[in-house]
From TrEMBL:
Protein name, per record: MerR family transcriptional regulator
Organism: Streptomyces spongiicola
Keywords noted in UniProt: DNA-binding
Domain HTH merR-type: start-end pairs: 1-69
InterPro entries linked: ARM-like (IPR011989), ARM-type_fold (IPR016024), DNA-bd_dom_put_sf (IPR009061), MerR-type_HTH_dom (IPR000551), MerR_fam (IPR047057), PBS_lyase_HEAT (IPR004155)
Lineage: superkingdom: Bacteria
Signal sequence segment: none
PROSITE patterns given in the database record: HTH_MERR_1, HTH_MERR_2
Amino acid sequence: MLIGEVSRRSGVSARMLRHYESLGLVRPSGRTGSGYREYSAEDIRRIFHIESLRSLGLSLREIGRALDDPGFTASALVDDLIRQTSDRIAAETELLRRLRRIRSAEPAGWEDVLRVVALLQALGSKSADARQRAALSSGEEVPVPVEALVEAVLGETEPNVAGALRWALARAGDGGTALLAEGLGSPAAAVRERAVRSLAEMPGDEAATRLRGALADPEFAVRAIAALALGARGVADAVPTLIDMIVVGRNDTDAADALGALATDTATADRIATALADRLAHDITEAPARGRLTQALADIPGATATRALGELSHDGDRAVALTAAYLLRLREAG
């Protein structure tokens, strides 16, 4: 079969067939009397093998080895192709992500594009100072991609840089709230904690809703941050976790202050006072925890808290009784 017919049947151009021949990949088995290349059935089969291997991404040199080297291992070749393809996909995915972030900043011209690129590079710098400067300067000249800020804040371990990133994210608007919520689903407790810290500084009802969900987190530190943030927003759902914080002595003063701030109406004040009294009556045996719970009643107004303090003034734990009696006198004097 002559080269033109082979090209037509195989879909490989005559020029490429000559290139294959120059590389030694396929050699026509014969020549016609006029000197034209003549391909046998075996030659054509080899051409199809070459094209099949090219479709897998092999270079022509690798194809030559695969077809001619008896010691060439097919499984090793496939494993290497998988690795190369995975690396290429990862690189292309990262490039696509970066391009989308640049587009989301809506650059007006190449100067804006270059500024966004520089900002993204700084946010990913190994230098904490560079990352902090990037966070503090974000949004000054061009809008910073919110996705980049969220990614940075969820991965940041340096407290000062994390604070700057949370500040920048809060300035960027509500767009980061949903992305931060994805961080709450991370299997890593540290990532969930960073997410809830960031949500605590985000305005709006959506952030409050996400924080409510964080009250069920298996990690106490995550629940505690969410509870303090919700307490500051006047959300009474935080009460049980705030009381837990007082019991374990973790940010207990802040938790007691939050309970006091929540007790703005009679119903909520009575609910908090009852919950504190129940913990004292049933759950708490260690003296320091009982003392902290008693002290927390000081900032809770209303008859229920006063009655609880009256009962505690006769408590078998002398320290608790003295604290309760002192708090009662302060109420009477007030």
